[in-house]
Each structure stands twice: as structure tokens, then as C-alpha cells.
Design a protein that fits this description.
The protein is of the alpha+beta class. The chain has one domain. Helices cover 34% and strands 34% of the residues. The chain has helices at residues 2-24, 47-56, 108-118, 126-140, and strands at 34-36, 39-41, 60-64, 67-74, 77-85, 91-99, 145-150, 153-161, 164-171. Helix 1 runs antiparallel to helix 2 (47-56) and helix 3 crosses helix 4. The longest helix is centred in the N-terminal third of the chain and has 23 residues, at 2-24. It is globular, with a radius of gyration of 15 Å. The model is unreliable at 1-9 and 11-30 (pLDDT under 50).
Amino acid sequence: MLITALAAALVGLLAAGIGCFALVTSSRDAPGPTECDGDTCIPTLRAAPVVAALKSQGHECRIDGDGWVCDLDIGDVHYELEVGITSEDQIYEVRAEVTKPEDAQLSAQSLNYLVWAASLPFGDDKPTMSEIRSWVTGRAKDNKDSKAKISGYEYELDSSNPHTITFTFRGVRS
């Protein structure tokens, strides 16, 4: 029963989260990363609303080094999202990790979590979000390390470990 409730919370995060970030990001105004505080950041998205959305869906979040780390356990699957931030609360890097039993298949919920994290810079840009969904979905189950550059961001997805899938993106300077 508890696992079902936590799974529903994760699905709620994914459904409500994308809408929430569409309100605070607008890729039409800023299609790629911008210079900020010595880094390359998502131009219109701050860490505070991302962390608030994660906390509202059951993640435990803490400041760690130069950013936030948010964790959620649902059954035997562990979700972790790290958000690298500048002194101005701008996001320069996002790392999402799904840890599952080695013999378990990647669930639709876990895949959606990775896609959700990958889509953060693009709020309401449906074509780019579709491209990201396709890229993440195609790489998450192929058991290797993959890289791509999409709309000014460097994406890396490592699915070479059957126990852990790690996804990272960061802005790339032109």
C-alpha cells in the first residue's frame, strides 16, 4: 500500500512537475544556456522551484557542496536528483540517477523521471522536449554511455551498469 502511494506521488511529480517548470521556464525567450556567475546556466529556471516541487512529492532534499541533492525511495528503487547552482540560485548542471535491483527492468516511472529531469531547460518547447524524450528513451536501455548536444546543452546518459542509470546535463559555452 505504501509503495503504491509513493509510486503515485512520483507519477504526480512527473505530471505536475512539467507543468510547474513550464511556468518558470520559457525556451522561446532563451533557447539555450547563458553565461551566469562564471558558469553556463539555464537562463530562466532557478533551483528553488525545482527543489520545492521535489519536496512536495516526497523527496528529502539537502544542500550538498555547490547545490541541492534530493532523494526518494519507492520500494527497492532509489531516485536521486542533484542540482548544481550558482550563488544566484541559477542551475548550471542537473544529474539524475535511478538505482534499481540489477535484475529489474527499467520501469516506465523511472524512465519518466529521467525524461523529466532532462526536460527542465525547455519548459514549453514541445519539439525539443520530444527530441529529448526520444533520445533518453533510446539510450536508457542500451547498456552503454551515450552523449549528445541538444539546444546548447550537453547530455550524457550512462546505462552501462545494470543496477544504476545516471543522466547528466550541463550548458555548453558556444
